[in-house]
Structure prediction request, 173 residues.
Amino acid sequence: CGGGKLLKLLLQEKQFEKIIGMDVSYHALEVAKKRLYLENMAPRMRARIDLIQGALNYKDNRIANFDAAALVEVIEHLDTNRLVAFEKVIFGNARPKTVIITTPNIEYNVLFENLPKGKFRHSDHRFEWTRKEFEEWGNRVAELYRYQVSYLPLGPVAEKVGAPSQMAIFKMN
Prediction:
């Protein structure tokens, strides 16, 4: 859930009956807790949200059977050898009806003046994919776990390098 920015927006929408923010970092959960004013939240609203500590590469029944999952700029923080475990947890075990995944587009990095060639945008990124690599991964996952997938650019699209980030929307068949 990172610092809770998306969670705060989701809470404003009444159609979301149950919201879970999950992060491996205890510190990130504390930041989200403060941003959401969880301690002072009205009981009715507080009943709609939980913050939990966990990792997306270990099966966790607390995240199973939701209508949707949003993984915003998350996968690039996983070691590539842990992606298969992540896929099994999200698409095989949790099985949300819709999964939205965003990740940086490495092709766009040439437009960042202060980013040295060959460096990632964040020191904790384990990889950054081209648009083609992201689509190859997404297509394989969609086929394996019986989802349909579509792709969208996020941010201004520059000729030849695309947008700064990219999004895959997986819908269960």
Remarks:
- The chain has a mean pLDDT of 96.
